[in-house]
Amino acid sequence: MNPPTPRPRSSQPKRTVSIIGTGSYVPEKVLTNDDLARLVETNDEWIVSRTGIRERRIAADDEATSDLATKAALAAMENAGITADDIDLILVATVTPDMAFPSTACFVQHKIGAKGAACFDVSAACSGFLYAVEIAQQFITSHTYDTVLVIGAEKLSSIVDWTDRNTCVLFGDGAGAAILQHRGGGHGVISTFMGSDGGLADILQIPGGGSRTPTTKDNADQRLNCIKMNGKETYKHAVTSMLAAATRALADADIKPADLACVIPHQANLRIIEAIASRMDLPMERFVINLDRYGNTSAAAVAIALDEANRTGRMKVGDYVLLVVFGGGLTWASSVIQW
Asked: In terms of domains, do 26 and 170 share one?
């Protein structure tokens, strides 16, 4: 195979970056709250009243994260009107990669036939999609790449402790994708703010399965390779961090909350979204919500909601949209986009 033609860095001014297409995919299997009540001590009323979640999607045993990501990617490519040959870079935000390496992005590249694309994964838990969007923006504004495929994809059912009623009711599987390019005449991504606090890593984590605590036959029954969460602390930091990130991104964009056509928040808990809406003095009708159907799909959550908002006409060209997320790390991010 001949080496690719070198792409010299352009001396042109930085360019704007827009989302020109979106896609999403959720598995066919629906797991309702009543189904969960057969696995752990819980019920529909308990789950709905505390989270707003009524059901979630569960991937098949032979469906890996890259399979979910590929289907979302193909939908986004169709929506954007591009082919695999147009894609220069593939970023997959996930905490449930197919394997430790190669990256899930490499598997997606092969499945969609984007042979000319560079590939890597982004690990920022539920904030991963917006982190990846900002990375993509940097590559495009610098003229390094023209077209970037960004995917948030998770098979959280593979890392859920199905005996822990405090966490197993929260999570689901799915994938969302976006195609980013420069688009003349539009601002696209106007501002992004990202933050982290590694000192609070222990309130939301998977403690085992990595180099610090490998899974062995002696600790396998402790389920250390499953999600562990301090719900009360996670809720508290989610509200404050998401609100701070949203406020900063709006200020940097010189946009007021009232100017927003819609807000697309991380889909973790309805109470968190309601608290943010109240503090931003915005009606709940302005928020895109699908957690009742999908639960928390981590890096995929805001990407799936973005695609649903796009396809249902929640945004029109020129509208201002706020995306805001929070995840383990701790990590958080917010972006203001002109559609």
From this structure: yes
Q: pLDDT tens across 260-305, in order?
A: 999 999 999 999 999 999 999 999 999 999 999 999 999 999 999 9
In this structure, are 198 and 325 located in the same domain? yes
Last-in-domain residue among 186, 215, 246:
186
| 158 and 224 belong to one structural domain | no
Residue 94 to residue 128: CA distance in whole angstroms: 7
Task: Provide the token pair at 56.
Answer: 């979630």
Catalytic residues: 126, 266, 296
- For the chain, what is the domain count? 2
The CATH number covering residue 41 comes to 3.40.47.10
CA dist 282 → 92, 237, 309 (Å)? 32, 20, 18
Domain membership flag for residue 242 = yes
My answer on whether 165 and 195 are in the same domain is no
What is the rounded CA–CA span in Å between residue 279 and residue 274? Answer: 9
- Answer whether residue 4 is part of any domain: no
**Beta-bridge partner residues of 331:** 196, 327
Both tokens of 28, joined, read: 């066919």
- Which residue range forms the structural domain that includes residue 65? 18-186
Measured at the CA of 221, the angle between CA 219 and CA 224, to 5 degrees, comes to 65
Query: Residue 54 is encoded by which pair of tokens?
Result: 């009524």
> What does the alpha-carbon distance between residue 178 and residue 134 come to, in Å, rounded to a whole number?
12
Give alpha helix (H) positions in the chain. 33-36, 44-51, 65-80, 104-112, 128-141, 165-168, 231-253, 270-280, 291-294, 301-311
Q: Check residue 2 and give its pLDDT.
A: 57
The reply to whether omega before 149 is within 30° of 0 (cis) is no
Q: For the chain, what percent of residues have pLDDT higher than 70? A: 96
Spatial CA neighbour of 55 closest among 34, 31, 26, 29: 31
Amino acid sitting at position 47: I
Evaluate whether residue 248 is within a structural domain.
yes
Q: How far is CA 266 from the centre of its chain?
A: 8
Same domain for 170 and 225, yes or no, is no
User: Tokens for 79?
Assistant: 């929506």
Least confident of 103-117, 184-198, 247-261: 184-198
Q: Which residue, of 169, 186, 203, is where some domain finishes?
A: 186
